[in-house]
Design brief:
Blueprint lengths: L2 H14 L2 H7 L4 H12 L2 H16 L2 H12 L3 H8 L5 H6 L5 E7 L3 E6 L2 H29 L12
Length: 159
């Protein structure tokens, strides 16, 4: 396994929280992904890097924004391919990006029903986040206008 795939594993694990899925994302064959993912997780250097990436990711809420953006703008091609494939094999299922899928159900008579997360709700939540960030910037600009600079000299500013 090379450095690039280990980095891919780490980033995927931080997002997904699943060693097998992260190993598949890093390019490991699905049949070996479970065991290889556990082997990678047993390395102290990998666990340390995962913790570092988590801290950076969760520090500013970008993980929530990224998830909402995937729901709002993500592709559903993999789910559609699974629906229209007569007999999908295990590898096709393992590699499918089903992030936008909220429910999969086999229906009587031999079909599959796929329900997706609501894109409109995801867009509304993104708009709320943007409005909050805009409000934070307006407050900061007001403080800078009143006190000049960042306001830190007067006891006002980031803590």
């Amino acid at each position: 396994m090379n450095t690039v795939s280990i980095k891919d594993f780490i980033l995927s694990f931080v997002r997904r929280g699943n060693a097998k899925d992260a190993a598949i994302d890093a390019g490991i064959e699905p049949s070996r992904a479970g065991m290889d993912g556990l082997r990678l997780m047993s390395r102290p250097s990998v666990r340390k890097q995962i913790e570092k990436e988590r801290e950076e990711l969760y520090a500013n809420g970008s993980d929530i924004r990224a998830g909402l953006e995937r729901l709002a703008y993500g592709r559903v091609n993999d789910a559609a391919a699974l629906v229209f494939t007569e007999e999908p094999d295990a590898e096709m299922i393992a590699r499918a990006d089903l992030f936008n899928v909220s429910e999969l159900k086999k229906v009587k008579g031999g079909g599959v029903e796929v329900k997706f997360f609501d894109r409109q709700k995801a867009l509304e939540k993104l708009a709320e986040i943007d409005a909050g960030e805009m409000g934070d910037r307006k407050v900061k600009n007001l403080v800078e206008m009143i006190y000049g600079g960042d306001g830190a000299e007067d006891g006002v500013g980031d803590e």
